[in-house]
Amino acid sequence: MSTLTYAAQALTGIPHDVVGLGASAPFVDNPTANFSDTPWWLHLVKALLVFVFLLINTLLVIWFERRVIGRMQQRPGPNRTGPFGLLQTLADGVKLALKEDLTPKNADKVVFALAPAIAGAMAFVSFAIIPMGPTVSMFGHRTPLQLTDIPVAVLLVLAVAGVGVYGIVLAGWSSGSTYPLLGGLRSTAQVISYEIAMGLSLVAVFLYSGSMSTSQIVGAQRDLWYVLPLIPSFLVYVVTMVGETNRLPFDLAEGEGELTGGFHTEYSSLKFAMFFLGEYVNMFTVSALATTMFLGGWQAPPGIAAINHGMFNHGWWGLLWFVVKLWLFMFFFVWLRGSLPRVRYDQFMRFGWKFLIPATLTWVVIASFMKASQLGFIHGPSVKLGNRQYPLLSVIFIVVLAGAVLLGTWLRDNRKIEQEAIRNTPPPEEIDPFAGGYPVPPLPGQRLREPSLVLAERAAGNATDKEATRG
């Protein structure tokens, strides 16, 4: 039994056989998928298949996005190159590769070429730990439909996402231009901010599954997908995955009216294609992680999974269910782009720091008490209230939840009172147009103060400050 298990038993009073996976399952110290019958060359074959899978899906999703948005805007979309326009994306890729590759004069040439390589490569690495199906037979060997698995596989995804930020900030800095630099800084701040809420939204899944291994998280959802008991975590993750991928309505790094094209403004040809490819592969990666963490991974939907003793949960059927769930998220991305306008940058960052992160922290605490209370009904101390015995953890959970509700209600009422006081305060009749250093036009019913009076007051204030400093 590991140190973590002993600590959990000491803190909760729950025996080690129920810490982590629930009362009916023995505690397994972060197991991983079984690759004992997978030779090294089969790993290379699976890596090649994952790479081809992502490339083909990227070609399809670009065509799919253009067609769906075209229908939403009552126009046909690409329909000339190939049947139904399916080869349009391939033709655009060839055209992009044949364009002249320009490098700005003031750019740092080494970093300028390295940045898109980092952004593109990191997008593929995260997919290595995604289980795309159960154990199947390939070339005479039994192997999981997963490239690799480690005890902290989900943390690998978050770490790779953090490294991918370097591609963005280096692209903006190395271009030697103002707008790419601003776009790189803006996008980096956005991605880092929403990675925090994304990581916190996954903590509840770790608590319920008892593991950070993606294969074990999928296995723990055999009876119940985590999207139902952990719906707040799922909703937060969906918001953060859109912000993480710089997609509308959160594509603030590419605000055409402000930054032209953001951090990749100065890029062309294949270097620009790497950023474009990385964005779409990232969409598949975050969607695959959402499928794995909340929608049962490769497992069939509950009704279909019960048919014929679960025959649709074996073999290559799992890959079908995984791809279907993946493309449901792709449609969600496209639907958002065709429906919602771009939000303002300060509103977006305020939403992430002041709402998502505190709300997710609160939910993690609630989910921890829910899990502990669930186990506390079976094992653990209890308290006597009246003539009945209640599990101690359940009582603590109810008290903390009630306190959080009362605190939230009190804060909301205070905010309403402050906002009402601001609304009822009449605006001043005279204003200083240069207060704060920026010219401000008057509101209806207001008038500007005389410039001579403003200058006299400022001179008097400066003189007072100097006297105070001398004293």
Automatic annotation (TrEMBL):
Q: Which UniProt keywords apply?
A: Cell membrane, Membrane, NAD, Quinone, Translocase, Transmembrane, Transmembrane helix, Ubiquinone
Any one Gene Ontology cellular component term annotated for this protein: plasma membrane
Q: Where are the transmembrane segments?
A: 40-64, 110-130, 150-171, 192-212, 224-242, 272-295, 315-336, 348-370, 390-411
Query: Can the keyword Ion transport be found in this entry's annotation?
Result: no
Its EC number is 7.1.1.-
Q: How does it assemble?
A: NDH-1 is composed of 14 different subunits. Subunits NuoA, H, J, K, L, M, N constitute the membrane sector of the complex.
Family to which this protein belongs: Belongs to the complex I subunit 1 family.
Q: What is this protein called?
A: NADH-quinone oxidoreductase subunit H
Q: Which gene encodes it?
A: nuoH
